[in-house]
Structures are given as structure tokens and as C-alpha cells.
Amino acid sequence: MNMEPLEIYKVYSAIESEAAVYKTIISDNMSDLRLASAIGRISVEIYPANALYMVAAILRDVEMPVHISDMAGVTTSYEGGEGFVKITVEREKYMPELTRYLWEKYTPANVVQADRWTILIRTEDPAKEAGSLPSAVIADPSQTLHADMIEFSVRCVPEGFRVRYHMFNDNEFIFIASEDIIEPNQLEHVKKMMRKLKDAKVEIVAKKKEEQ
Amino acid sequence: MGTVYEPYVFNGGVYKHGQIIELLEDVGGYLVNKIITITEVTMDMMIPEEDVPLIEALAKKHLGTLIKSPLTGVEIAVVSPTLASHHLPHSACDIAEYLRHPGAKTTMIGLARGMGRRVSLNDDFERRLINEHDIALYCLGSFRDCLINKKPRLFEGVQVPIVATGGPDDIETEDMDGADMYIGNLGRLSHRMRGTDEMKALDVMNEKVAELVEEMRRDISRDPPAVLPARAMKEIENQIPEVTKSLAPSPLVLKMNGVRVKLPYDLFHERVRNVEFDEGPKLGEIADITKSKMNDYILVQIKPKSEVGFEI
User: Fold this and answer.
1) Are A155 and B190 a contacting pair at CB < 8 A?
2) Rounded Cα distance, B302 and A39, in Å
3) Which of A134, A151, B106, B265 has a CB 3.0–4.6 Å from the CB of B291, allowing a cystine?
4) In the structure, what pLDDT confidence band is assigned to residue B57 with cuts at 50, 70 and 90?
5) Which residue of B has its CA nearest to A27?
6) Is the pTM of this model over 0.90?
């Protein structure tokens, strides 16, 4: 699903002013964890009297797996009578992951970091390795995103709601927290929230905002 | 009715500030705290209500300012239901910091089992610790239902005046069972309180707490402590010089009816008991000197005049 960041962002509580206050708490935590651009649609419902907190969110497909070709150029070079695979780093963000990958594959002794932007790899067949390396996956930000979503939910949940349940299904995330045992009908309710989120028409929400 | 003392803070130059101290002592006031920073001096003082204009005039003559600091000499327990990120550092720390502006000494207390609705409670140690303070200020959350129906359980066993703060601004004090005052617009937050509305809410809080303190001071003046706590504090400082070597941030904390001395109880309580006043009595005769629940400090609670039979 192609979505804008936070195209749907709803917080419901029985008392309207409390929902508004809670929206600021959720927004603060979202910006602390830099999740605003990763979440497409989110719906939160809070029932303080029943000690129940529910979240349904759909994540955007922005974080794709990172290949070496996304962050560096791979060529071969011949230096000091020896052939190398030469990696020229363009974006440093995933440098630790790249180094870890290369160390595991070629052992640290064969990975020479010539300078900040250049890595030379000593191998038997540099041309073959240079051909296969660019497509290697070195990091998957969606894994971090999942961890961040859980951190986000735990930070936002009202204090003391220690019975928690969460579920990831591709880019769909549901979270429910309570003080008591979570009932099947409550779980069904949060799934219904998710179905509503998926079926919602964004244009209608935008129009409603304009009317307000 | 005894003398009513007003707390003030003087800010001005070091030059001739001794004259202000002399006048203060002449009119029967007490210097609570003096901090000299290069050429500036800040002095917290307790001045007899009717003599304030005299000191004010002298302060003006020395080009200094005399500002009322209504919470000087008040120790407030800022209680949050837990030490979790839901309450700390925002908004409980902001509240505690703001209470210090008008002179209060604050202690942050996070309850061990205060979280949630059904399970929240306080334990005996926490109640005793809170009761050592002059006021207990509870930093509560944003949900009306929790505030009215569940959280008042945390007030049980607390005998000092209770101020509750929370998010909703339409709750009356009477709705909260056990609270002496409710202050709204101060609920749960995940950011530093610096918006206009937030600062305004903190200002309102300080005003309301000051009103409560004013009322408490007038009540106390009907049956005042046998010795003014500020005087007891001064005598302890003079007669036990080790107190100045205590590593605690404020080694002597002035309370409304006593003093907290931040020295080990076992080593110093006898000496505190033997602190003598010019009129004859020793501190141990007119005050209860007990081991504080806060570390092993010494808590001096001065008995009222009606119990001791005289006032010095």
C-alpha cells in the first residue's frame, strides 16, 4: 500500500480533551524515536475506566534492505603486484554493517581499510568477487523498525498496564495493553481497528480536516 | 497570637550588606541562608511581618531588591507514582524545579508500587518518609477516572497537607478524596514544560501552593513552636560546626516546624540534643529529635508552645 507519512492519525478516548493530551504524548514519543516517516496510518483507542490501551498501525514501505551497491562502488584494483577488490564508500551510515559483513566473509586479515572511504579486499579471484558483492544485503532496517515500534508502544502505554500483546503481520502492527487479562473480544476489537484503518479512504479524512 | 514571620530574599551588592543583617537581627528576624557570588549576595531571611518596610527601605538604599519568597522554609515531597519514564523526568522534575524558585526545598519520591489503577498502593516506609515533609505534592496523570477513583489510594496514611496535580482542569478538590488542593493542567508529558500554557500552569501551581503555605503559617502562629525553627537552625549551625562539612547539597533544611540536619544520627544526635539557647533550655527539651527516614539524618521537630509551656 502506498501511503503518505501519518495520512491517518487518530486517538480516541471517552473524554475528548484526554484524547488530545494523549495525542501530544504519542507525537512526542514518535518524534523521539523518529518514527513519523515510517508510520502511514495509526489509530489509538484508550479506555481508562477499563484499563485498556489499543494501537493499530500500518507501516510504510520506505525501509528496504540495504545492498552494498546502495552505499558503495565496487571495482578491482592492482596494487603492489597484488589484485584486490576495491570498495569506495559513498554513504557512511551503514559502515559498521559493511565491515562486519566483510570480516565474516573474508576474515579481518584480508580486509584492509586503506582510508576512510576505501576498503581493499585480498582474495583469490577479485574480478568474480567484485561482480557478486554489490548485490549482497548488509542490513535490514525493517528489523530495527519493528524493535522501535515495540519501544514506541511501551513508552506510550499508560503506566501500570503491564499485560501486553503485540503482533506484526508484514507491515501491519497491533498492540494491546491492559491491567487485567486480555479478553478475546478485546483482541478482536483491535483487529477490527486494523481492518478499518486498511479500508479507510484518506481523501475523506482530508476533507473532514478542511471542514473543521 | 505570636509574631508572624515573612520569608524574603535579598539580592544586591556585597558592599555594606552587613547593615541589612544587623537591622534584621535588631528587629528579631533570622538569616536562613547567605550566598556570596563575587560581588553579589543572595540572602534568604525570615522577617517579622510588621518590620518588612524597614528592611525594604534599607535594601532600596543599598540598591538591592527584596522579593517575597513565599516557600522559603518549606520542605515539599514531590511524589510520583513510580520512577518510570511516564512521570520522570517530565513533568515531575519540572514541577520540583519550579517549586524551588520561590524558595522551597523539594525531595523527589518515586513510589515502589504506585503504578496503575487496580494495583497502586504506598507502603509504610514511604508514608513515613512523606510525613517528614511539610507538604506532599503528588504528580498524577491525565485521566479523570484514574484521578478521582483510583489514585486517592496513594494518599492513605499521609498526614501532611496533600496537593494533587493532574491533567484535567475541571476537577474540584472535593472530588479527590483526601487531597487538600487540586491543581490542573499538569498531567503526563513527554517533553520539557516550556510552552506558554505549561509555564502558566506552573505559575498557578506556585501561587496556589504559596496560598496553602500562608494558611499553614497562620495556623501555626496560633500555637507557635517553642522556638522559631530558623533560630534553632542558626544555633545548630553555630554549635555544631561539622554541619558545614556535610556533603549533602543543603546540610540544614529549614522546615515549618523544625529542621532536618544532614549528619549521621548515631554520631551527632546527642550533640543536637544538647544545643543550648541563651534563655537556658536545650534543644532536646523542646523538640523531638528522631532518626530521619531519609538516609540516617537527624530530624528535629520542635514541640508547640502549648506542649512545652513557654516560648523562647
Assistant:
1) yes
2) 60
3) B265
4) very high
5) B190
6) no
